Amino acid sequence: MKTNARSEPPKPGFVIRVHLTEGSVESFAADETQARKIWEGIEPARLFASPRFVLAGAHFKSVFVSAQVLRVDFLQKTYQCWQFPGGYADIVELSEEEFKKHAHLDQPKQMAKREQPTPVGDLLVSFLKLHMAGGRPIFLMAEFPAKLPAENQSFMQFLLSKGGFHMRLREGGIGVVNLALLTGYTVYPGVAQVPIDTWLVEPVLDKAHPQ
User: Fold this and answer.
1) 39 within domain boundaries
2) What is the reported pTM?
3) What's the Cα-to-Cα distance from 205 to each of 18, 96, 144, 209, 210, rounded to whole Å?
4) Is residue 204 a part of any domain in this protein?
5) Helix H segments across 54-151?
6) Domain contains 201
7) pLDDT at position 123, please?
8) pLDDT band at 190 (very low <50, low <70, confident <90, very high)
9) What domain range includes position 70?
């Protein structure tokens, strides 16, 4: 019996997604040979150091200005994630709904307090909202061992370094974020120690003044 149903073409094993500040996303596929060459040449912290990205195939060439690339995602299941900076055990992207649920933003009484004491070396879980140029935030969950007070600002310094920052993707693969386009970030609960020039405040959560 014949049918008009068409089988879905196989999905490529290595896809590169380029996210631009104006909101568009361009996707490209690489074969196994080129995928390995690309992967082995990547240094996440320096991915955006070049002034441009060039991607070319048999019938095209695309050039993107690095300063306008928010992030580059590598969708693949072959290569292991690079080591995270600052001794972090894991950093994974969340959806906005997952972020709100796990950070208990709708249930303030259940939110962990920033000044809750944690023994050095114990594993902590934090939830981060990265505010990016272009208005599309990135939501993360990070696991890391508690550090001595003098070391607790190292991750803030890294996020403000304007280099590249990588994370595991929910659908598999790795994303690298352009920290030069980071306009700020919010972390729940955050470490107890804060800079001496910190303004101690509380968020306004009513509808007239959205967070």
Assistant:
1) yes
2) 0.84
3) 34, 17, 29, 7, 6
4) no
5) 96-103
6) no
7) 77
8) confident
9) 14-188
